[in-house]
Amino acid sequence: MIRYENIEVRFGDFTAIPDLSLEVAEGEFFTLLGPSGCGKTTALRTLAGFAQPTCGEVYVDDRRVTHLPSDKRQVGMVFQNYALFPSMNVWENIAFGLKLRRHSRSQRQDLVADVARRVDLTEDQLQKNPSELSGGQQQRVAIARALVLQPKILLLDEPLSNLDAKLRGQLRGQLKALQSEFGITTLYVTHDQDEALTMSDRIAVFNRGRVEQVGTPREIYDSSATEFVCTFIGAATHLSAALTERLGISTSHLSYLRLEKALLETAGAPLPAEYARFTGTVLAESYHGTHTIYTVDVLGAELKILQREDGGARPQVGEPAEVGIHPSHVLSYAEGPA
Ligand SMILES: Nc1ncnc2c1ncn2[C@@H]1O[C@H](COP(=O)(O)OP(=O)(O)O)[C@@H](O)[C@H]1O
Ligand SMILES: [Mg+2]
Fold this sequence. Notes:
The chain is of the alpha+beta class. Helix content is 28%, strand content 33%.
């Protein structure tokens, strides 16, 4: 459906994207995830036709679109700040692209009414100025403005990042529902790991303009391909050389363990036999309601252990603790050039 082939994007002397190849399937919710400045927006803009690559090709449905003007690509883009026109009301905002494409007044009426209904904007809201709407409603306007042109692909650039945490959580579900209702291939940009894991069919993790791994959320989290992906996608303890060695893993590798993979023995829950057993000392605990995170000194590693709250007796800070680690859960990376 979408194919980036050896795309390079430069701004003067600076290479924002050195060599990007990526394929997105029809109907997929595909996320570009990475820290600020890693090239996510640039990758979207290249597909939308707002940035010109210096090398490589972009294909949509096997059609080369690399040099096609933006409005010929059947790609709808929702910008990070929504970029709604403040001098127009909501209806005019949504209808804007239709007017440019010379749709008649009655066609515009029908198409806007249809898309507004599907994204849950009321007749009343259509007559308002965008500034009179909440952040979540403005976002739906921006999405409606893109969808009304019936694009084959929807591009969403950090659409939730300007909203407060609670609304962000609600809108994740709404966005996802909209996407599956429209069945539209979606390229979604975020720097938020949690958002990427909960919403995506597949994720490409970006670092400095390069893709470090492409996979399903589970693949990215459980089998992180690189040290960068491992530490960016979720919390993990860096294991000491002594602990790594005791687990039978080469100490020439950097080894990590996710917090929920380490087990703490409690009175009611002995460690499974297949786990390697260590005696450590509890250094600290932090209570999070649904779980507690313990910091346990094990052979010089400050191992973080996430324990669900089950009401059982737990070791206290300063006391010894029995810790279990399954070697297959350790994520190991050869030390390479940075
Ligand atoms: N128009 C531009 N001119 C010069 N540098 C740019 C331009 N757009 C982006 N960049 C640079 O390219 C890099 C990637 O930017 P961007 O794609 O916006 O990253 P992200 O969306 O992941 O935060 C950054 O270093 C940014 O400063
Ligand atoms: Mg960006």
